[in-house]
Amino acid sequence: MASVASSPISFAASFLRTKPFPRFLPIRTLRCALSSSSSSEPIEFDITFAPPKPTPSSPRGNAAFQQLFIPWIVRGEDGKLKVQSQPPAQLIHALADATTQNPKKKVKKKKPQASSSSSSSAVTTSSEPKLSKAARRYYNENIKEPPQRLSKVLAAAGVASRRTSEELIFDGKVTVNGSVCTTPQTRVDPTRDIIYVNGNRVPKKLPPKVYFALNKPKGYICSSGEKETKSVVSLFDEFMASWDKRNPGTPKPRLFTVGRLDVATTGLIIVTNDGDFAQKLSHPSSSLPKEYITTVAGDVHKRHLMAISEGTIVEGVHCVPDSVELMPKQHDIPRARLRIVVHEGRNHEVRELVKNAGLEVYSLKRVRIGGFRLPSDLGLGKHVELKQSELKALGWKS
């Protein structure tokens, strides 16, 4: 019985050694029949083989996927569009030139040097970065705000003129941080201190500084008082009316003139809300030349020019002009014209010089202050905002 039991196993082993099944053989079950001498019935048993694992097919192995086709639509020499499998030659040359002309530079990192002293580590002190002039100016104007005099802050906020602001302070109508202040020289910071005038809060943010050149017409006075109907400042009513629309959330500037022109004089006058700028330009120490064109009645002779150049007494001071010149006659202007340049700018100085020479002033117009000349295309009553270069021409360095 043992021989019969072992015979199927030996048969299967010998069968597999002599005739191995290939991997693609579709037969999965092998049926064998053996006969034994002790038994007439054959012994049947089944041998089942596991099917081979399928190998996943990769698109890379397929020849159809080995080459990816990218269509390039180019325009041929005949001007027609065509499809090709290679990129245009111009593109390949351009990429090659760009790679050759702009090679990537390798930045070599410097190794930190070892400290000479073993006991203490080396401390490298880096110098402070140097800021540009524009950056320093922006910091000084918008960030750094040192305390200022109370009267100056009220004038800059548009409450009133500096003189009127001092009167309000003396009258006890101004409070700082809940206490009445009667000293105009008190230093305050509008961004930190709480300031009230007649029960109205002064805004923390001051209005920006503005600078204008105005062609003053005849009949207007250089006064910022609200009672004056024909004031130079009233020529800016349209500008002030549209201020909130152009600058939302920003207080309106309080405008005033730099210096004065009498009611009959026309021409250039500067209007601003910057008190320091106005003080600098109008102060006699600035010595800014001011050029006037005056039209006189009658003929002008050499003795008249000599008398004007010798000067005269104005407000108790002997004033001498910088230059006097007789301008050529024009067909449309029958009267004689004089160009007179002064630098002191005292009240009615040019009119007094002409009057002292025995001439009568018919009209007077200012055309230049410092290096800034009144634009020829600026009409009467019109204004233009000054640029930074024009402010420098006026001698202002902010």
The counted number of beta strands is 21
| C-alpha termini separation | 122 Å
Largest sheet: 9 strands, mixed
Gyration radius from CA atoms, angstroms: 50 Å
Mean pLDDT: 77
- CATH architecture assignment name of the domain at 211-283 and 378-386: 2-Layer Sandwich
The CATH topology of the domain at 211-283 and 378-386 is what? Alpha-Beta Plaits
Helix content: 10-25%
**Low-pLDDT runs:** 1-9, 21-27, 114-128
What shape does the CA trace take?
flat
Instruction: Note the beta-strand portion.
Output: 15-25%
Count of individual helical segments: 11
Instruction: Give the CATH level 1 class of the domain at 211-283 and 378-386.
Output: Alpha Beta
CATH H-level superfamily of the domain at 211-283 and 378-386: Pseudouridine synthase I, catalytic domain, N-terminal subdomain
Return the structural class.
alpha+beta
Structure explained in plain terms:
Residues 113-127 have a biased composition (Low complexity). Residues 96-131 are annotated as: Disordered. With 398 residues, the chain is of the alpha+beta class. Among the domains are: 2-48, no CATH class; 145-201, RNA-binding S4 domain (Structural Genomics Hypothetical 15.5 Kd Protein In mrcA-pckA Intergenic Region, Chain A); 211-283 and 378-386, Pseudouridine synthase I, catalytic domain, N-terminal subdomain (Alpha-Beta Plaits, 2-Layer Sandwich); 289-369, Alpha-Beta Plaits, CATH 3.30.70.1560. 24% of the residues lie in helices and 23% in strands. The longest helix has 17 residues, at 2-18. The radius of gyration is 50 Å and the shape is flat.
